Amino acid sequence: MKGSVFKRCPHGVTGVKGKPACPKKHGTWYYVADLGENRAGRRQQQKKGGFPSKDEASTALAALVTRVSVGQYHHDERKTLADYLAEWIDDKVAGGLRPTTERTYRHHIRDYLVPHLGKIRLRDLRPGHVSSMLRKIGKAENAPKAATVRRIHATLRTALSSAVRQQLVTYNAAKSVELPAAPRPKVRPWEPKELGAFLDAVAEDRLSALFELVAATGLRRGEACGLRWDDVDLGAGQLVVRQQIVEVSGPHPCPYCEDGHRGLHFGPPKTSSGEARMVDLDRATVAVLTAHKATQDAERGEWGEAYVEHGLVFAHEDGTPLVPTTAVTKRFAELVKAAGVRRVRLHDLRHGAASLRLAAGVDMGVISKTLGHSSISITADTYSHLLGGVGKAASEAAAALVPRNRRDQSVTTSANPQTAEASGEGVHAGKAGGPPETRTRNLWIKSPQLCH
Questions:
Q1: Which among 410, 408, 418 has a CA at the least distance from the CA of 446?
Q2: Which long-range contacts (CB under 8 A, 24 or more apart) does 337-343 make?
Q3: pTM score, two decimals?
Q4: Count of CB atoms within 10 A of residue 74's CB?
Q5: CA Rg, the chain, in Å?
Q6: 20 secondary structure, DSSP code
């Protein structure tokens, strides 16, 4: 690897190729290093300036030579952050990125990262740039919630971690940045009476079985929309979550029909731990699904050859998939308003299923697996405030397992010593009242106002 240093001042470039260095103190020193050819066969150079002296420029050049020689340096090819993020997300998608995650990453890149940081050269990105971006996002007129700001930062941090592994940069500029506090919101799902009132009110609606299933099992909306009869065993009272329907842009092929669907994609569940998970069904839910299947079979007969078979448990009358936002969430909001119950989100039915299991004393690990959370800590953080009664019952049950000798530890409190003596209560150990072995263990405790 070759390199040299030179001075740039009002007298032009000096100190290189036999030109004597300008003796005056104005100007700054630079280094330039030849890094060889890149994968495309183009010559790569690394140039950096702003050094006040020749010695400092030479020291920086020597450090660069050392990093290159030990494989700790890779030329960034003058990429801006916008250029790098575009390549990074395409590589992630090619590597099998989940559609929901892709949608989130692209949203963060398009609406936040590129507008604020996109023009900065990748190697020049510093923690200060990232902190400034987060502050501006948080103070914008339509600022996202603190939790969303933290997710935007997480997307950038993940992308820069890949850049470090590729040796495009030496450190992750988003790693040590102070983030806004974003405590996990405390969910407040329907109480059992509210849930029962809603389900009774919507019993005749075509999607009532979907709401019953989500309320009973905690399935995500996309998982319920993507559930197929092949994955439901009504006899055994079980179902397996294998896929979900995700709303994405553009047309997408369909594994069950030739035409495909614009804006809808059949993909795996949100988390890898949620894939192929077994969910048990109670008898009431099995009965609801059985009746729903009979109704769907009747619809299939009415449509005849025009029915587009997808094998879905929940679909339009002609068999085509439901659009989660418009066909399910919007309909749920309409039914909640009509039922006159407290307004909640469709996702709160999932929270309600978890809270009912907690109230029934179901182990947190079992609940986490049923919901398909990526870790039990997510379950605990989300529902910790609902553990009061469950924790008390668990404490009592644990204490009951310890064998103890029974003894009288009662305490009598009286504000009037005379009354206590007259009634035979509060006898002091030193007073008359029978031999020590026959005296009560009750203790008279003075009230605060009688203490001197």
A1: 418
A2: 338/201, 339/197, 339/198, 339/201, 339/202, 340/201, 341/190, 341/194, 341/197, 341/198, 341/201, 342/190, 342/194
A3: 0.65
A4: 17
A5: 35
A6: P
Measure the CA–CA gap between 93 and 95, rounded to whole angstroms. 5
Residue type, 24: K
Nearest to 15 by CA among 71, 58, 46: 58
Tens-place pLDDT, residues 80-93: 999 999 999 999 99
32: Cβ–Cβ under 8 A, 6 or more apart, which residues?
3, 4, 5, 6, 45, 46, 47
Strand, helix or coil for residue 277:
strand
Helix (H) or strand (E) holding 85: helix 81-94
Q: Output the CA–CA distances (angstroms, integers) from residue 192 to 268, 271, 345, 354, in the order listed.
A: 31, 29, 16, 12
Are β-strands 277-280 and 232-233 bridged in parallel, bridged antiparallel, or unpaired?
Answer: unpaired
- Which residue, 115, 113, 93, is CA-closest to 102? 93
Task: Provide the terminal-to-terminal Cα distance of the chain, rounded to the nearest Å.
Answer: 90
* Structure confidence by residue, pLDDT tens digits, 181-198: 877 777 788 999 999 999
Q: 379: closest CA among 137, 179, 390, 223?
A: 390
Long-range contacts of 241-244 (CB under 8 A, 24+ apart): 241/269, 241/274, 241/275, 241/276, 241/277, 241/279, 241/372, 242/268, 242/269, 242/275, 242/276, 243/267, 243/268, 243/269, 244/220, 244/268, 244/269, 244/270
Edge to edge, the sheet with strand 43-51 lists 12-14, 2-9, 28-37, 43-51
Contact 218, 269 (CB under 8 A): no
* Helices 347-359, 208-217: inter-axial angle, 10-degree rounding: 40
